[in-house]
Structure formats: C-alpha cells, structure tokens
Amino acid sequence: MTRKEYMDLLSRALENVEPEVARDIMEDYEAHFERAKESGRSDEEVIEELGSIEEFREELDAFINKEKSTEKKRAEDGKTAREDSPEAKGAPNASQEEEEKRRQQERAAQELERARSEMNRAFEEMQRAREELERATEEIARETKQAEKEARENERAAEETAREMEDAAEEAAREVEDAMEEIAKETEDVVESAAREASRAAREAEREAKRAAQEAERNANRAGSQNNMDIDNLVNSAKNIASTVLNQVSGAMDKAFSGFDKAFTGLWMGNFEKSGEDMRDYRRRQENAKSEAAGYQREHGMDGKKAGKDGQNDQTFYYSFDYDNDSSGESEQYMPEYHGFVTQEEGIRHLVVDSKSAEVDIRPSQDNRLFFHYINDGSANSKIIYYFEKRVSQNTLTLSIMHNEKMSRKNHSSILGGVFEGNPDLRIELHLPSWLGALEVNGKSGDIEMEGVDIATLMLKSMSGDISVRGVNADKCMAETMSGDVNVKDGAFGSVLASSKSGDANAQKVKAERAAFKSMSGDATAQDACFGEAVVSSMSGDARVSHVSGRVISVSSMSGDAAARGLTASDAKISAVSGDVDVQNVNSDNLLMTVSSGDMQGVDLSVKTLKASSASGDMSMRGRADQMNLTNGSGDVIVVLDGNTKAAVSTRSGEVHFHLKNKGAGFASKVATHGETNYRYGDLHLRDVANGIHRYGAEGSSLEIKSTSGDITITD
User: How far apart are CA 711 and CA 430, in angstroms?
Assistant: First the structure.
C-alpha cells in the first residue's frame, strides 16, 4: 500500500467527523510521514507503525459513540433540570436554550481536543517503543556477531595451539631420536675401534710370544751343555719380552677404553669434570701423605693399619696405608678412608663435593662442625685407583674423589679390571652445620640422600643416581639427575627445581614460593603441597597434582595424561597434547583446560571462569562455573551445571547435552545447529525447535550453544 492510498482510506474514514477535527488528524498523519521520510524510512515502515485503517476506524467509532452517549446523557440531565426549574414551568426561554447548546458544543470540542491529545501521546509512546525495540534488536545482533567472532577466534587459537604443541612434540621426538642415534653411532665407533685395537695388540702379542718362544728354544738347543744359570737367564729374557708385549697390549687397551670414556663423558657428562694430575704432583702428594702418616703413627704409637673414627683436633685427618712393591720397585698406596672436621672460625661458607660414583649421605651436624668422611669398601684395585682430596680456596672447601690415572692404566692389563676399575664401592658422609651457606654435590652413578638440613643454597646433580631431599629448608634448591629419580619431601623453599631426564620428579608435603618439577620421559607429581607459583610437567610421562594449593599452578604433559585432584588456585592450567585431562575437586578463579587428541573430564568444579578446548576428544564438565567457554572439535560435550551461569558451548561434529540445574530460574538460550534442538526443562517440553533465541522463566542463565551437525539438548 502506498502513502496516497493510505491517506485516501484515512480521509474516507473521517467522513463522519467534524471537518476541523478531520483536518487536524490528516495533518498529523501527513507530518508523521514527512518526519519518517527525512529520517530515511520508507512509507511501508511508517504504515506498519501507524496500523491499519480498519483498526483506526474501530477506535474512532468507539470514541464517537462514547461521546454521543455522554452528550445524550448530558442533554437528558439538562432537560430534566429545566423541566424542574421554575422557569420551565412558564414559557420556554430561547436565549437559555441557545446558551446551553453553545456550552455543550464547547464541552464537545474540549473532549475532542483531549482525545486528539491522548491519541498523539499514545502514538508517540508507540513510536518510542518501536525505536527501543529496534535499538534492542540491533544491540542483540551486534552482541551475537561479536560472540560469533570471539568463538571463531577461540577455535582458531585452540587449533593453532594444538598445531604448535604437536610440532613441538614432533621436534622434541626428532631431537631425542637424533641424539640417541648419534650416541649409538659414536659408541659403536668407539667400541669397534677398541675391539680393532685390542685385536691388533693381541695378534702382535701372540706373534711376539711365538718369536720369543722360538728364540728361547733355539738358544736352549745351542746352549744345551751350559749350566742351569744360563737357562734361567734365557727364561728371564723370554719373560721380559713377554712383559714388553703385555705392556703394549695394556697401552692399547687403555687407549681404547680412554677413548670410550671420553666419548661417553662428552655426550652425557658435559657438566662434570674429569679429575687427574701429572706424575710429579702425584709423587709429591704420595710423599707428603707418607710423611704425615708416619709422623702421626710415631706420635700416637699406631701401626699404620687402622684409623680412628673420632679426633680431638678438627684439623686432623686420618689415613690407612698398605704398601706393595711391583716388579719395578714402585709402591702402590691404598686409601680406604679419609675424614676430618672444619670449624666456623675457619671462614668456610661454601662446600663443593665431586663424588664421582660414590653414594653421598648428608645429615645435620650435632656439634655445629662440618664433618666429612670418605670410605672405600671396594676391592684392592679400587683402593689404589681412587683416593680422596681436600682443597680450600678463599671461603670454599672442595672435597673430591680423585682418579689415579697411572694406577688405572697399570690395572688395565686385566681386561675385567680395566672395565670395572677395581670394583669401586665408595661412600661420602657429610654432617653440615648451620653456619654453612651453600652446598654443591656433583656425582655420576651414586645416589645422593639429604635429610634434616637447613641451608641457604643447595645444588645436587647426578648422572644415573637417585636424589632424595627430605626435611630440608633452603632459599634456593636445585636437584637434577639424568636417569635417576628425584624426590623432594617435607621441606620449605624459596625456590625449588627438581628435574630428571628419564626418571621421575616427585614432590610431597613441600612449601615453596616458586617450584618446578619436570621430567622428560618419566612422571612428574606434586602431592600435599603449597606453592606460590608452580609448574609440574612431563614430556612423555604423566603429570599429576593432588591436594595442592597456590596462586598459579600449571600441570602439563606432552604425550602422557595430565591430572589434578583437590586443587585450589587463583589461576590453574591443566593441559595435554596426546593424553587425557582429568580434573576433580578444583576450586579456582580461572581454570584453563586444553587437550589436542585426548578426552577431557572435570568433576566437582567450583570456578568463576572456566575455559576448555579440545581438538578431537569428548568433553565432560560437572560442578559450578559463573562463566564458561567450551570449544570442541569433533567430540561430544556434556555439561551438568549447578546454579546460574553465562555459558558459550560449541562443537563441530559432536552433540551437546546441557543439564542446567538452577532450581527453575529459567534461561535465555541462543542455539544454532543442523541437527535437532530439544528442551526438557520444567514444564517446557519441545522437540526439533528452530534455531534462534528461546526464553523461559526468569532467564537466570544465559546460554549460547552451537553444533555444526550434532543435536543440542537442554534439560534441568
């Protein structure tokens, strides 16, 4: 309908209305059309706002009928009054009738004017209501577009994060594989080289021995008539030749095994130095030790075979010596034990221990003195090859297990002795006082155990041994091992780092402002702990926390599972790449859960803001969340939520089951799917509902749910 047609119909509808009133109404409608045209609105929109002519005619007729009945009643009342008046009893007064008629017309005009004003106000209110509705519709559209944009951005971010984590995992796996191949190749090359060298030396020795035997036989035949002394000389000559050959074999074996040790050390023990000394230093140390031991034995009447356990002088060290002469006349010194004390007055604040393959036991001092005790319970060869040394530099005391290279080479004449180097069985005992500020222990294959010590700075390292730290309080603590386990228990720290390449890293009953427990191929765990900020992570093992509290807690695994139980934190992040994520009984302001190809479960949650994303696994969330944003790629999403919430849930090919348990407070939902949408909430039971906005009750919760091809179900 056009504007002209509408106005024509309006004009015909006003035929029975007074001309002046009809003209005013027509002018009002024309002015409304003009204002709408100036604001850019079409005639169709204005006609729709004004309503149909039939509705206007009905309202007008009702108004006119009401006015007529009012006038009739007034006329009847006036007539009755005139008949009852004294003047009515006489002749009718024409001037009074004219006056009454005029007053009635004025009242009718006033009523009509009031009616017109009421209609104008009603029209203006209707116009304002329509404008408010349009603004609300536009605002909802903008919010919807913004929410869709954020959902797309979150989905892209989740996919990008998943790709980055997968790339990192693949890169790490390739690096580990390359490193292992390189190690295997170099080890194989060293072993092959050692085998070739040993084989060549053995063949050379066999040829030399045969030549020596043949020469001895020829000499014996030529000297058959000589005396026995000449024969003995010939035999000794053969022995000397054989000894020379064996020394050549020993040198070749020592060179081969030295190369193997160098390759192994270079690949795995870059942070550990190999101790050694030249021949002059070795002899000077041996002579000093002999003189000191002999003087002490003369003074105390000792036989040199045993050393006492306790001494009165803190600077006294105890040796035990045995001597054995080899064929060259050189002596071999045995050192099965070494110990001593250091007092606070000596100014030592830093202790460094190079423990090699020894077991290290660390305890608190009972008399506030630093006590150290080296014990070698190994074989005789071990007592020759290994010895203990003490060095002091400024305020640092260094205790080292030294390796006698010369004696090691001599004992390589026995292949088994060369490989196992005298079967060492080494131990170091340390009793630490309260005045010691820092402790550093570097080991290879022995375990390190520490208990009940308070210290400012602590650094423990081992290659293949376990590290145990119990009841220790430290400002800074670092415990690292390559193939052993690291366990930290019952301690308080400013900052603590516990890591293992192929073992586990565990924390129990630990308090720390900053903490990190990491493993490459083992598990990483934290239990009954309190942190400011903490990271618990593993590359190919599981990462778990249980009954842990803190400000910021991160639990992550690359190819294992990530789990949190009884976690209380301001900000918490639980993530896995190719494993599952399992979260139970978590109380947090902000909880972030991510997984790429595993399932995700959250049980008994109590959080303010929950964000969760999964690329291809199922997702299940149960508990309370003031706000939640769940994004899933190809799995189902199940939400069982207590109380009201503002939730955004999306999945591409899975189904969404949203159980809203908010005691009948209702909801406002916006759903979009190519599948079915079903409602079973209170007395609302609908199936296959169209996409769009649906409202129920007091609208206590706001839900936005999307699924590309799956069904959506909302129940209470």
Answer: 68
